[in-house]
Amino acid sequence: MLNLNILLLLLCIVILSDAKCRQNHEEDGRNTRRRPLYTDLSYTLSTDTIFFPGAREFSLNKDYDGVNKSGIWYSAFSFCMGEHGGTHVDAPFHFFKQGWTLEQIPSSHLIDVPTAVIDVESVVASSDAPNEFALDVSHLIQHEKEKGEIPPGSVVLVHTGWSKYWPDKIRYLGIHPNAAKWLADERQIVGVGIDTPSVDLGNSKTFPVHIFLAERQIYNIENVANLHNLIQSSKNSSCELHLFVLPIKIVGATGAPARVLAFCK
Ligand SMILES: [Zn+2]
User: Domain of life of the organism in this record (predicted)?
Assistant: First the structure.
């Protein structure tokens, strides 16, 4: 009888350990599946978020917040804001009447898009007049000498290093119109992003870069966050940077806040 009990006990141990082993195996399988590491290039929206002058700033109203009359936890808020605040996309319609409105930008221009980061932080830092810095064609050519040609269909992100001033409203650097033209005509890009509030210089009253890019159905991403985290990844030759650009899909919009995520492919 004793032997039978011992036998049953051993059988139980074998069955349980086999089940545990299979469970571990499945978990290991899940853990070892290749998943890209995403870098979040978006700022969190809050009352600190900066907006284009005259735009409605971010506000959050707690319409329902807590245990209701039926004893159920129920929270639901409303938010209100202008389209052009924080990390956001400018649709071409923003500066071009015939341009795509936000929901008309093709998904292929927003999802899994090849990405180049133009790192001019040290150039800006050593400039005699950093406030007047604008990315020009020479910076793009220098980038290509080091990293190779920017492929057609890319988004180009400009890292000036001035995101360190976020959320200072008056820190604007931009892109020279000649650089915008070169990127559009010579490299057929689909979007341009920058780590400052505008692709045009802050003192611009005519917005030449906005207009030029919009006329070619190229969108902008302004106030791109955390670009310094991409610089290291882009030094790794096995890292092919790609981007997800996910603005809220609003009918007829000129722009919208966006979640922007980068990863190595
Ligand atoms: Zn904008």
Answer: Eukaryota
Distance 243 CA to ligand 1 centre (A): 19
More confident position, 239 or 47: 47
State the total domains in the chain.
Answer: 1
Mean pLDDT of 84-109: 98
- CATH number of the domain enclosing 166: 3.50.30.50
- Whole-number Å distance, alpha carbon 84 to ligand 1 midpoint, is 4
Q: pLDDT tens across 24-77, in order?
A: 444 444 555 667 889 999 999 999 999 988 899 999 999 999 999 999 999 999
Give Cα 66 distance to the centre of its chain.
33
CA of 23 to the centre of ligand 1 (A): 50
Question: Considering the chain, what is the average pLDDT of its residues?
Answer: 88
Look up the domain containing 206 and give its range: 83-264
